[in-house]
C-alpha cells in the first residue's frame, strides 16, 4: 500500500508536467526587460508583420568572426529577428558567412558591389597591431519571387565603430519593417514628377525615381495645359498624393501657381527642391576658371512668402563642406585631387526628427539660405549649415582660384542657416483676397491640413553619371564618398505620405554599452593573468579545505 501511494504521487507529478508542457507549447509570452525596450516591436511594425501570410525568408550576411562591436551588431540582429519570428512564425531567417567556402574576399566583395550591397572595411586592433577586414553588413528578404536588400550598418562621417553599431541598432526595426512593407504591402499612393518648367532630366533623377517606385506609383506631370484648361489640369493633378519639383529653372505663370496653390489647399503634399540662384559647378571648368552666380526669378516669391518662407537669392558658404575634385596633368599622367570648396555644404541636423535621425551628412551645392517667417504653420528645420557659415549675395563671380585662398574665419558668423524646412498645418491660399488668374468652380482660401518640404538646392536629388549611366544618388564617384542624400529624400517622401506611422520608428533611441577598447588593450595582460590564477587559487583552497575536513573526520573516528 505504501509503495502504491509512492507511485501514485510520482504519477500525478508526471501528469502535471505533461499538462504544463502542453499548455506552454501553445501559450507563451516573451518579456523585454531592457531599459530602452529595444526588443519590443512597435505597433507600426506589428501592423506590417501581421500581413505576412506565407513564409518570408531573410538571409543575413553577418556570420563569421568579428571584432567585439560588430559581434554586438550580429547578436542584436539575431535577437531582433527572433522577436519578429516569435511574433509571426512566417518570418524565417538564416545567417550566412559569404567567405565560408574560402573564396577570395575581393572577388566576393565585387559580387556584393554588383548587387548594390557595398561591403564595409573595418579596422581591427589586436595585440597592439592594426589590420583591416571586410564584412558584409547586409540582409536580403525574399517573398513570393520578390527580393529587397536591407542595409544593417549605418555609416556616418566621423563616427567610431561603436557609434556606427549603435546607430545601426537604433534603425534596425525601421530597416526590417520598411523592407517587409515593400514586399507585403500593395502600392497605393501616387507621386507626380513635375515637368514643363525646366526641371532635371530623367537621367539626373533616375536613381531616386527607381528607389521610390518600390513604394509608390510614379508618373510625370506637366502644367503645359494650364494656359487653356486650368480647371482640368487641377483636377488631374489632384489624382496624385504628392508632387516633386526637382530644380525648376523656368518661371511659373500665375495660372500654374494657382493650380499648385489649389492642389495644396485640397490637401495635396509637395516636395520642392528649388534654387533662387543660377550657378552650376560645370560652368567653372572653362578657360578662365570662373563664372557668375546670378539671381534666378521663378516667380515664386509670393508663393512661399504666403506659406511662411523666403528663399533668398544668395549663396551659403560653409567651412564644413565637401571637396571639389580638380584634374592636373595630361593623358595617362592625369591626377585628380580634392580641394576645399565651401560652396558644397555638408548639412547638419539640428534636431532628431524622424526624417533626419541618424542619417549621413547630406551634400548640397550652391544652396540658398531660407528665412523662416511667422504665421500659423508649424515649421521644422530639417537641415542647416554648420555654425561656421556665411551668406554671399549675388550677382557674384566665383573662381576656382578660391582653392588657394585661406578663408577668413572671422567672417563666418552667420550661424546655422536653414536649407531644408518641413511645413505642416492648414495653409492659407496665395490668392486669398486677390484677383485670381482664372475662375474655379470652388476656390479654397483656407486649405485642409497637409505637409510640404522645401529644400533650397535642387542638386540634392541629382545623381552623377558614369559613362552616361546614373550612379547611386549620394555617391561621389570622384572621392568614393557616399552622402545621405538618398536616405534623406526617401525619408522625406515616406514622412509626407506615411499613414501607418512607420517613419516614427526612426525616433527610437537605443543605447548600447561597449567595452573601452583602449582600456581593454592596456589591461589585457592583467585580466588574462587574473583569469588564469584566480581559478587555480580557488581550486587549491577547495582542495585544502576538503582535505582538512576529511582528516578531521577520520581523526575523530
UniProtKB/TrEMBL annotation:
Domain of life, source organism: Bacteria
Keyword Lyase: no
Chain coiled-coil ranges: none
Boundaries of every DUF7088 domain copy: 35-141
ABC-type uncharacterised transport system domain sequence ranges: 188-492
Membrane-spanning residues: 529-549
InterPro entries from the UniProt entry: ABC_transp_unknown, DUF7088, Motility-assoc_ABC-rel_GldG
This protein's UniProt keywords: Membrane, Transmembrane, Transmembrane helix
Name this polypeptide is given: Protein involved in gliding motility GldG
Species assigned in the record: Gillisia mitskevichiae
